[in-house]
Amino acid sequence: VRRARPFAIQRLGHFGISVQDAPANLDFYRRQLGFRLSDQIDFGGRLPADADRAALGATVGSFLTHGSDHHSYVIFPKRAFDAVRAVDEPGMTVNQITWQVGSLEEVRRAVDWLADRGVRVMRAGRDMPGSNWHVYVFDPEGHVNELYYGIEQIGWDGRSKPTAMHARVFREPPDLPQPAEASEVRDALAKGIDLAAGHTSLEGDDATFDVQGILLPRPFKVVAIGPIALFVEDVAAAEAFYTEVLGLEVTARSALEGHPSVFLRAGTEHHSLSLHARPLRSVLGLSEHTTLGPIGLRVANYRQLRDALAFLEGGGATVSVLPPALRLGIEWAACVRDPDGHTVQLYFHMDQVAASPAPTSPVDHGPVASWPSTVAAPVGPSGEAFLGPWG
Ligand SMILES: [Fe+2]
User: Fold this and answer.
1) Is the pLDDT assigned to residue 361 strictly greater than 60?
2) What's the number of CA atoms in the CB half-sphere (13 Å) around residue 286?
């Protein structure tokens, strides 16, 4: 198939934030939002010898998931993570925006293609934990984007791979072809590695909410991550990177008080990423500590959205609603803040774009004036389906 670039993004696979208070955020995303912990990584052993460990605080990063991907959400301790990489980036709390592409060959060919175009490549290889083959690049303002193939899948037993299988880590782009994962598992068995020795993401059983027939620890289930929003200095330059380099397509544009926004999609969803002029951050009253805008999390249905907001309010959260210009393609949505002040936007349905080119008029659903007990079913398909059971 002839394409404009040697890779094609299929979906937003996972996403990561760097936080000041890693334990509080881990608790919030697990206990309040229901993410499961699939693995942890301690940056303590990689700190420079002269690091002020007391000032750095927590050094453990966490990999969380809502489904079968090894991780869909990553929480790293910002001070320790920055110290390990010898960077000081105030405002940069995005640690990765991660896109699934079509094959390992696409990842491998992307490494050279991106470098040839002057894109700043951070590194390429294969990370453990998670097992995904990848290349990391920076957008024009320093947000890390990752392209990957083949993330480890977590099954019904909640087990991640044992650390003894992490030997297949790669710090450089791989030569192709590589053995299939099934071969790696057979090799591990032959070496006597205990496949059940990995971390388990099974949570305690305090499931008291009847969620449309299933008992869960909270009255909703996060079934998808994204879209991601960024506040950028130069919207046009960022748009050029995400369209011309990464291949996303513009679905719609909006403006609020003269400040532009652009909405970009990777597949049929109205958008997986939105770019907003930096001044909008203060117009909206969002936290000035980060260039990251609202983080979208999709719950399974409208009833769960209402119940989620009530549940989070009961846990002390303040619920707010973004103006329509900031959530084109999403009618019912509301936001809460995580412990670091990042905005999390919950919704249950995003408009789907059936074919390219996209409709020219923005799908503006207007203000959320109230939360009726029933709403009209959204028009059109609902997008990526959640594959497994909710709990
Ligand atoms: Fe990643």
Assistant:
1) no
2) 29
191 Cα to the center of ligand 1, angstroms? 28
Res. 30: pLDDT tops 60: yes
Distances (CA, A) of 120 to 10, 127, 384: 22, 19, 31
Centre of ligand 1 to C-alpha 98, Å, is 6
Instruction: Let me know: does 382 contact 300? Beta carbons within 8 Å.
Output: no
Q: How far apart are CA 189 and CA 282, in angstroms?
A: 55
Rounded Cα distance between 84 and 48, Å, is 7
Measured distance CA(229)–CA(244) in Å, rounded: 18
Whether this prediction's pTM lies above 0.85 is answered by: yes
Beta strands in the chain (DSSP E): 11-19, 36-42, 60-65, 73-77, 94-100, 121-126, 133-138, 144-149, 209-211, 214-216, 222-232, 249-256, 259-265, 273-277, 292-299, 333-337, 343-347
pLDDT at res. 364? 81
- What residues are neighbours of ligand 1 (ion), with CB under 5 Å? 96, 98, 146
Q: Which amino acid is present at 38?
A: S
CA 135 distance to own-chain centroid? 16
Residues 6+ apart with CB under 8 A from 186: none
Q: Is the pLDDT of residue 358 over 70?
A: no
Alpha carbons within 13 A on the beta-carbon side of 352: 13
- Cβ proximity of 330 and 350 under 8 Å: yes
Q: How far is the CA of 282 from the centre of ligand 1 (A)?
A: 29
Distance 180 CA to ligand 1 centre (A): 20
Phi, psi of 124 (to 5 degrees): -145, 150
Dist. CA 372–CA 374, nearest whole Å: 5
